[in-house]
Amino acid sequence: MQLWGALDAGITMVTNQKGGHNYAMDNGIAMPNLWGLRGTEDLGGGNKAIFELIDQFNLGTGAIFPTNGGGLFGRNAYVGLSNDQYGKLTFGEQYDFMIDSLLRFDNSIYIAGLYGFREGPFSGLGIPGNSSGNANFDRMSGTAISNSVKYTTPTYYGFSAGMLYSFGGVPGAIAQNDGKSFGANYANGPFSAGVAYTYQRYAQLANGMAGIRNFGAGAEYKFGLATLNVLYTNTKNTANNATINVYQIGARYQITPALSVGGDYELMKGNAVLASDKANQFSVGVRYALSTRTVLYTEAVYQKVSGDNDPKAWIMAVSSASSNDRQLLTRVGILHRF
């Protein structure tokens, strides 16, 4: 059994939150503050029993993070079987394939961490139980699906795939409140690509028969010490037809074994249901590794929005929106893994 974790903290300055500057000790940005347990048991014949339990917490207060209802292992919890020839089958609270198949192509995780993911002026998307109605709308910062069964294939000639189904638990209505996800990936030398689809129904939308649908595609190419990423995601509320398209491109460069720099651009576009609001977001970051487990970093994120109804800029994980159409933050921090 392995005990592992990550601790992240730093100082963030935001130019406009409700009209004023804000300085804060923020945490869980470059990586969520996590601790977890994972283990395997060799069953013979190439078979293994596997499990993983992950808790997310607030480093500033020590409190359990309210992920998926605030349970101790609300970030991820599963048990299952694996075989090198036939793949892996698991049961529990698990990430869908927007994470498994596409996260590696989201350059923002290497540049700005949580601040680089998507929020913006799209509260009309109306994700149930979401703090702003649209935070992390394309699921890329990690949202587990409860009561799920998940199968992942081995890799054959560079190809791998997987599927997930979440039971809604409503007698006589198997589709009500259910969820499903699919993903596929290909890797060959410096090139890799992936596609994914997730549809999660919610009890609050059309009595559990409508939900939030996500799909996306991404790719990466490595040019020596440089890496280029592109990513597209589409998010739709099937109850009100609110839709957001995201187009993203980013690059990073390893200057020395310890020092890396990178930049990222995202265009988020809402449809007419969302007043045709748009957000342009730019991120830059520098990371310096003190060791294989400890990193110092600095980053900046700028968002500029436009649309039909005087939208307000809102960078992901900032506690409140700007009072106008732009928001800028800068941060210095430290990340330690164990």
Label this structure with key terms.
Porin, 2 helices, mainly beta, 338 residues, 3% helix, 16-stranded antiparallel β-barrel
Description:
- It is found in: Cell outer membrane.
- Homotrimer.
- Keywords: Cell outer membrane, Ion transport, Membrane, Porin, Signal, Transmembrane, Transmembrane beta strand, Transport.
- GO terms for molecular function: porin activity.
- It is a multi-pass membrane protein.
- This protein has 338 residues and is mainly β.
- The chain has a single domain (2-337), classed as Porin, CATH 2.40.160.
- It has helices at residues 97-102, 108-111, and strands spanning 2-17, 20-27, 34-44, 47-56, 76-83, 87-95, 144-152, 159-166, 179-188, 191-201, 211-223, 226-237, 243-254, 259-270, 278-289, 294-306, 326-337.
- The chain has a 16-stranded antiparallel beta barrel.
- Strand 12 and strand 13 (243-254) form a beta hairpin.
- The longest helix has 6 residues, at 97-102.
- It is globular and about 60 Å long.
- It starts with a strand and ends with a strand.
- The model has no long low-confidence stretch (mean pLDDT 96).
List the helices and strands and how they pair.
Elements lengths: L1 E16 L2 E8 L6 E11 L2 E10 L19 E8 L3 E9 L1 H6 L5 H4 L32 E9 L6 E8 L12 E10 L2 E11 L9 E13 L2 E12 L5 E12 L4 E12 L7 E12 L4 E13 L19 E12 L1
Antiparallel strand pairs: 1-2, 1-3, 1-17, 3-4, 4-5, 5-6, 6-7, 7-8, 8-9, 9-10, 10-11, 11-12, 12-13, 13-14, 14-15, 15-16, 16-17
Q: Report, as a whole number of angstroms, the end-to-end distance.
A: 14 Å
The description of the largest β-sheet is: 16 strands, antiparallel, barrel
Q: What is the rounded Rg?
A: 20 Å
CATH architecture classification: Beta Barrel
Query: What's the overall geometry?
Result: globular
Counting helices, strands and paired strands, the structural category is: mainly beta
